[in-house]
Amino acid sequence: MVEIDPDFIQPPERRPKPNVIEAENIPVIDLSPILDNSNNNIEKNPLVYDELVRKIGSACKEWGFFQVINHGVPIESRERTEFVGKKFFGQKMEEKKKVRRDMVNVMGYYESEVTKMVRDWKEVFDFTFEEPTLIPASIDPDDKEVAHWYNQWPEFPPEMRDIIREYAQHMKKLSIKIMELIAVSLGLPSERFNDFFKDETSWIRLNHYPPCPNPNIVLGCGRHKDTGALTVLAQDEVSGLEVRIKSDGEWLLVKPLPNAYIINVGDLTQVWSNDAYESIEHRVILNTEKARLSYPFFLFPAHYTIVEPLKELINDENPPKYKPYNWGKFLVARKRGNFMKLDVENIHTGHFKIT
Ligand SMILES: O=C(O)CCC(=O)C(=O)O
Ligand SMILES: [Fe+2]
């Protein structure tokens, strides 16, 4: 057996099972009724829209995630993103480290991510959507000073900046469309969430998981939930994403469906909906032969957003299940936690739960 750095080794209860089970029945939702140029669009066919909303609502409730097809994102943009991502990660470490992230430049390359206090077998590249992104300067609740996040664009491949920027626009558009469907499915006006994203802190990550000599005791990404409103995730043809389904707590592998996107309900949607919808735990398993690339877009609101269950969704019978929290301060604390290595657990949404 090849020696593995102990920082990567998962405790026995978090290791992958020897027999991977493929998920069946994951909802696959056809978004063609809401495409700009659809023949079947909502004005022409309200029943089709109602059916779409019903499917989204039930996928959010029963699963906390689903896949979408006919989503309107041009396949060329996705392919170009995957191509430049592979080119970037294929470089020598010394080149990649030129754009390595640190406490000040939180965007860029990184190879030492930690999830739940164990190192992930992966390297990442992070890009913020708005340049610059406004963010609190510190975690101190009384400190009103604002700082800025900028991207660190690599020299190679030179076309990466334009390709990722274009792709990010498609991700934003798709994620807002899905938030609109989620809003309607909760009985709210479709644009109910939109103002939260005016000065958004959304970002894109490229995840590269190299083959691993011992995938039985190591994970590409440890179990976690995504903290934002929702995640729009693309994966290449190599499988690895597992989700922990709600009905029986079993880990199931999400087989790649060509050109589909995986949508994860995030913790924010859970809080806004006062637990009507729940975020889902997921992780990434590895294999000994093939590298894998995935690239999530994390839809995050403006830093000054006070996150709390929506007033329309709470009442005497259904009181708020979360204390309000400031999104920017939370985000800064999380980013800081990323540098605090293996001895402390990172802040998470559960800290605001009213018990
Ligand atoms: O690689 C994947 O499929 C999932 C990655 C992920 O969960 C994340 O980056 O938050
Ligand atoms: Fe995730």
TrEMBL record:
It comes from the Eukaryota. One of its GO terms (molecular function) is dioxygenase activity. Residues 200-301 form the Fe2OG dioxygenase domain. Pfam families: 2OG-FeII_Oxy, DIOX_N. InterPro entries: DIOX_N (IPR026992), IPNS-like_FE2OG_OXY (IPR044861), IPNS-like_sf (IPR027443), Oxoglu/Fe-dep_dioxygenase_dom (IPR005123). Keywords: Iron, Metal-binding, Oxidoreductase. Belongs to the iron/ascorbate-dependent oxidoreductase family. This is Fe2OG dioxygenase domain-containing protein. It comes from Vicia faba.
